[in-house]
Amino acid sequence: MWSQINNREEITEKKEKGMKSMSRMLLAIIMFCVLSACDSGAPSPSTQQNVPNQRLDSGQSKPASTGPKTASTIANRVQTDVAKTILEGGESATRAVLVMDERHDSRAAQLQEAILLERLYYNFGSRVVVLEGYLTEDAKLDTGWFDKAVGGSAVRRARVAIQLLKEGEINAAEYWKLVHPEVRVVAAESKAEHATTADATAHSAPEIFLLKIAAQKGESVISRDQSKAHELGRLSAKLDAAIKEFKKVEDSSDAELVERKRTETREAYGDYQEFVIGLDPWTNRTWKSYKENELGSDKPSLTVSADIAEAIQAKAKTLGVALEAEEEQAMQDYITFMRARHGGTLKIVGALRELVANPTGSPVTAIIGMGHSVDMARELDKLDCSYAILRPLVLDVDREKLHDIPFEIYERKYLRQSLYSEGPLEEALKSLPRLGSKKPGVVLEESWLRGKAEVYAYIDRIVDGVFGGGPPYGPPRIPTDWDNSTFKGEHVYVDPKAVVLLADDNDAVVITDRTLAALRGAQAPQEVVDRLRAIKDEPFLHEGYLLREVELLIGKQRAKGIDKPLLENIERISLASVMIPLVINHGKSTESVLWAKATRVRSHIESDERQAVESMLKSALIAVQSGPIMTKSLTDNMGRIHTSFDTVVAFGRSAGVREVSLSQR
Fold it and tell me: What is the pTM of this model?
């Protein structure tokens, strides 16, 4: 029976459950549980906790700061409903540093960071951010191509940039640069300094070591205690069954089913792991310390992670625990990685030191991974500045229930590839040249990202031009002032003469006074009445979108009580659509045509620029937190996606895409 622990091959998806040849699935399980504090954070299933109300907080309409403020004062002004201050210090009112710590694989966290950056921009004049992962060898971020593709105000640029952020294609700092070209993104580390990596096996090394130490020290416990031997057998069988069930559905297109089985397997592994490690007092204490820092601590530390790993390494050596060469190398890689990332902390602080040495009166910002915070605060205490380290609220929930990017998708980030590998748009963009495989996260210089942004921007501008950018909305028409250069970007071209207005084939709905009266009669919550009054007389793409808007506002259960009077009193109209042929790699040997059928989903946008941008960011945050599990394709089961805040598109490799209904649920 003891071989069920001591044999590493008995924890894989094979019949024996050890750790010798860890499957990709089990590595992902371990990463779910271990890597929340690391630069390559682990993915987790979705949650609907901490979903903010879509309304703006009262502080956001306040004018920009008129005098110096300490970092603590600034943090209190900007963090309402999206972040919390976890560490702060210093009293300088002219040298303020705001640091945001994050999980790089959490779209919700990136959206909350973007809201923080916008509040700092509009209220306190912030224009500089030091970004972890942006290297001194990387090209200086140039957004002239985006300005040309999108044109117009910050609100227009945000319509497209928010969609890319919502998808997880760009990070909060890249979003900020796209929306506000004058923003400066500062690189702190060199490629050599950032080159140290640790794969999934390295990140699982502390667990593997602890399991093997517990196996060696706990053998006598199992031999003496039949109840523990029986429990070990039960947990082994449970894990084996869970792995088999997961393998049956691993390649299923049903993302919810796959995630459910993955969760069951992770839980079975966790029970097995806790039992084995708990057999020995030392491994049990060490495991608790490790988990507290990596998973349970509000302030995880890279140096503490390295210290614990070194203690585990030394213990295994003292006991003469049998370890294979690749396991020992994995542990050393883990320790080296953690120490190197602490070096990254010092580099980021160095960049901040230079910035605060010549204060401008506006706070300087930085974005780092969660594991840097404690060491970052210690170093900032040495500077002549005030500082506050903020954490997005979405990271305040159980870290195993975060709505993150699945690990198998997030891996593409390390190659600077799009997260989405399937679908007509993704296939069309594969023809664009790539800069090569590099680890850091910025992608604004990548051709695929620029091509995708141009596709989104041109569709948004064309739809805006055809259907009108705001009330009063006249009949749709093809503008006459477009010429051959209007939609000609680096990688995408649209011939205005080829844009075709289609007949009315999309059922839209309109909120009227009768709708509002019926809702008041049904005693609908006031926030619903206020929200729908704001979009009164604007076409809203079919009733399904409208019901979702209400559900997101007050929850599904409360929405059920008013869906009948709502649907019985809306006005149904027809909404036209437009066909757009997008030429990818125009004039090149790999030129191809991607067809897009698009229409506008009307949603109310505040007239004030800062309120409009934040309103869109909050809507995107709600959609991410309450939406389905992320898959390899952006399209829904009808082949539709959003390409901007309120534009719905169906893509196809032929003009036959015109047959796709944009309004069908």
Answer: 0.75
